[in-house]
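Input.
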Amino acid sequence: MSTPQYPTRRQMLRAATVLAAGAATLWRLPRASAAVPAPLRHTDAEWRPLLSPAQYDVLRQAGTEMPFSSPLNHFYSKGEYACAGCGLHNFSSDTKFDSGTGWPSFWQPVADAVVEHKDNSMFMQRTEIRCAECDGHLGHVFDDGPRPTGLRYCMNGVALRFDPAPGVQPPHAA
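Output.
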């Protein structure tokens, strides 16, 4: 029976160097997501004329509209709910429900249309929902929604725009 051969310190250092160089090379390679356009970014001065004061407050300053103030709250026609800042479709009417909270609510976003961030403001832990395209604040997600997800994406109506399906009339502003 032969004695096992263990690597020397020099061999271990060489292997670690080769692995580190390989990892650094891989880190610099383009990722599959590199084909996805970069998020829409504007300066504060550029956003202000593009949005109403209420939209600016919610989308850019993470404000909250008054409950029951959005015409989208009780609107259930077929279509898509898009970010009012950039137009990315964030939610489908197929996932909208009446949560009774006073804000438009959905049980699921469109795939890859929103991003989540931890929000520790207002002395509580919440999950903030932002638009994946322009990083606009849309609202928060809670775990008290209906099936099949059990989630309630509670969105500010002023941060959304309704794009009706063909033949559907949009809601009238209040």
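The longest helix spans residues 9-28.
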